[in-house]
Amino acid sequence: MSGAPSVVGQQPADLVELGRIAGAYGVRGWIRIHSHAQQGNTLLSATNWWIRTPASVSGAGVFRPLVISRARTHGKYLVARAHGIDNREDAQLLKGHTVWVSRSLFPQAEPDEYYWTDLIGCQVYGLDQSGQEALIGVVSDVTDNGAHAVLHVHRMQSQADGTLGMVRTPKGRPVEELVPFVAAHVHSVDLAAQRIASNWPID
């Protein structure tokens, strides 16, 4: 990436957290970023980042824009140069800040590939003991176990009034089902309908 700074403008409403600044890289103001799984390409292509102040720093939760002039991979990290950050001391001050990018700036996903952030909130359907399709719950998070992605699904059930409610433990915590996001179990994903069909068994 190179060229004059682009204009960030007003904070977007569709920001997605893609990584965390691990500290300074070198002495010329570069920063080192630990990107969340499968999100590195977005950080490499986007020039307009937003960083959020961590809880350990005064003004926690505040967003500020960061215009990126160069970014590249470096081992398991990304390293980037931002306008206005010219020395190691200034770069180190950003350690712990989370990095966010507007969803509208994500590159187009390949067929049968999905951004994890788009899967969160989808309803996941599996098969009950009779082999009939039934709702498991709603995706709350997606992680990587090293071999494949895993959907973290909060179990849902019908309430007396006909609405759906979250299943909770006696201590009030959501009951979670882990569904491997692999073709052997996930048969279709309809992002428009926020619906994922699978053969995952429902107890």
Topology:
Elements: E1 15-25, E2 30-35, H1 40-45, E3 48-52, E4 63-74, E5 77-82, H2 88-92, E6 98-102, H3 116-119, E7 123-127, E8 133-144, E9 149-158, E10 164-166, E11 176-180, E12 186-190, E13 195-201
Parallel strand pairs: 7-13
Antiparallel strand pairs: 1-2, 1-6, 2-5, 3-4, 3-6, 4-5, 7-8, 8-9, 9-10, 9-11, 12-13
CATH architecture annotation of the largest domain: Beta Barrel
Number of contiguous helices: 3
N-end to C-end Cα span: 51 Å
Query: N-to-C SSE series?
Result: EEHEEEHEHEEEEEEE
> What is the percent of helical residues?
under 10%
Total discrete domains: 2
In what range is the share of β-strand residues? over 45%
Broad shape? elongated
CATH classification, class level of the largest domain:
Mainly Beta
Q: Rg, please? A: 20 Å
Here the CATH topology of the largest domain equals Elongation Factor Tu (Ef-tu), domain 3
Derived from helix and strand composition plus strand pairing, the structural class reads mainly beta
Q: Uncertain regions: pLDDT < 50 for 5+ in a row?
A: none
Report the mean per-residue pLDDT as an integer.
90
| Biggest pleated-sheet summary | 7 strands, mixed
Q: How many strands appear in the DSSP assignment?
A: 13
In the CATH hierarchy, what is the superfamily of the largest domain?
A: RimM
